[in-house]
Amino acid sequence: MKEVDPEEVKQILTRLKTVRGHISGVERMIEEDKGCEEILLQLVAIRAAVHKTSVIVAQRYASSCLIDAIDQGEDRQGALNKAIETLMKLNQ
């Protein structure tokens, strides 16, 4: 991601560190034989944090990377189709 606002970078890295913390927590919970409900709730938190990070990056992609591709001479319709295809993967 080029030319990213430093605040955006900070926000993305903070969210990823949160995910890392949740994953470490789940590992400990499994090692400590915690209950399935507790573990599943942490996995839901991990999924939500990853999704929020994906949304931030997708917004950046849609507002900047797509425009950059078109400005650099990429076919407009091709760039749009590629962007739609990439963004649709977020919902799979």
TrEMBL record:
Top-rank taxon, per record: Bacteria
Family annotation (Pfam families): Trns_repr_metal
GO molecular function: DNA binding; metal ion binding
Single GO biological process annotation from the record: negative regulation of DNA-templated transcription
InterPro entries in the record: Metal_Tscrpt_repr, Metal_Tscrpt_repr_sf
CDD domains (UniProt xref): CsoR-like_DUF156
PANTHER family reported in the protein's UniProt record: TRANSCRIPTIONAL REPRESSOR FRMR-RELATED (PTHR33677)
Protein name per Swiss-Prot or TrEMBL: Transcriptional regulator
Species for this entry: Desulfosporosinus fructosivorans
